[in-house]
Each structure stands twice: as structure tokens, then as C-alpha cells.
Amino acid sequence: MKSQFDRKAVSRSFAVGDRVLVLLPVGGEKLSTRFCGPYAVLRKVGENNYVLSTPERRQKTRLCHINLLKAYVDRVSTTAVCCVAVVLPQSEDEGENLYTPPEPVSARVENTCALEQLGKQLSHLTAVQRQDVLELVASHPVLFKDRPGLTPLAIHDVETASAEAIKQHPYRFPPHKKKQVAEEVAYMLEIGAIEPGSSAWSSPVVLTAAVFSPLPAS
To answer: Could you tell me which InterPro entries the record lists for this protein (predicted)?
Structure first.
């Protein structure tokens, strides 16, 4: 039985001065343990026992078996790296019709303002292509309103496993994000994307970073 138990055992040892973590019981909880330390190895006693220096505990030194010890690895310090941007001259081979993406815009840009400047955003197209795009957009004004619309053509049913509500403690929002969450919820209520509900079912609010907006969107 012992040979089977020790089949994957690895011989370990510590030298004097090594720092180790020791598995000790948690105060007030007899069946709970955790690794404490790090503590320095003072000397080795026998084949598998070590005397550790524990200055902040009631026993200034402690004799521990090697099975209760594991090596302590210092955190590797990282050096801050500065980002450097290099401006390269434009190559003549790139051509004059190279498309350059527009600058980042706000997440709530009004479509009316965007349509007024649509021609400037299509400068990478030819005159004929630009006119085709403008006519196509102008022929569907209902799709480019200032507020998001709602289509009845697609319906998504959320299927749940059971009708039993999951009891869970509410998570606390960071104070510096409460105002932003309240503004986002008020905006979605205003445009009709959501509606108030009193059901036992609820979904947590998750803030995700939007690439085109300086603020995260909900």
C-alpha cells in the first residue's frame, strides 16, 4: 500500500535560510487550515523535519514535517513599459484611394448629424459609388432615425431550465459607476429598449468596454 501511495512521490529538501510556507490550523476553527508565512528555515532535524523561525507567532520557533511545507517563490517585479508611437512616411505605392477610418465617436451620436456629414465619410469612394450610397441611405429614412427602432421580424425566446427563482445576494456596484449605470438605464427606458418589471426573475447588469466610446456601455 505504501509503495502505491509513494509511486509519484518526489524527494524534497530545504536549505538553511530558505523561505517556506507552512500549513497551520486557522485560529478558532479546528478543521480549517491554510498556508502561512513565509518563514525562514533555521535548521534541519532528521530526514524530514525542519525548525522554522516564526517571530510573529506565540512560538518563536516551530518544528514542522516537510509534508506541511512548500517553497515560497517571490513575486517577480515587473518594469513599467512606455508605449512609443512612430510616425512613418506615407509610401507612394499605397495609392490615393486608401481608406482611413474616422476618429472614434460617441456611442450616442445622432444619426441626423451623421447623415449630414455622410459625404465626407465616403471620400474614399468614387463619385458614382458615393452617389449610390447616398441615394440608398436616403431611400430608407426609417432605418436611420435618431433613436434605435424595434423590428417585429425576429423574435428571441429565452428558455430557462425551470421556473424556480435562484436566490442570490445582490452585488454592490462601485460608487464611481452608479451614476453612469443610472444614466444608461434611464436612456434605455426612454428609447423603449427595456421596461420596468416586478418579476422575481432578474439579470445582473454587466458593464463592457466599448471601443468607440470613452465610457463603458451597459
So the answer is: DNA/RNA_pol_sf, Retrovirus_Pol_polyprotein, SH3_Tf2-1
pLDDT in tens, 148-157: 777 778 888 8
Question: What is the b/e burial string over 45-68, where b = at least 16 CB atoms within 10 angstroms of the residue's CB?
Answer: eeeeebbbebeeeeeeebebebeb
3-class DSSP state of 88 = coil
C-alpha cell of residue 217: 456601455
Residue with cell 525548525: 51
pLDDT in tens, 20-71: 999 988 877 778 889 998 999 999 999 899 999 999 888 899 999 999 999 9
CB 64 within 8 A of CB 22: yes
Supply the pTM of this predicted model. Answer: 0.36
What is the distance in angstroms between the CA of the first residue and the CA of the last residue of the chain? 58
Show Cβ contacts of residue 210 under 8 Å, excluding neighbours closer than 6 positions. 107, 216, 217
Query: Helix or strand or coil: residue 159?
Result: coil
Residues in the chain: 218
How large is the greatest C-alpha to C-alpha distance in the chain, in angstroms? Answer: 90
**R_g of the chain computed on alpha carbons:** 32
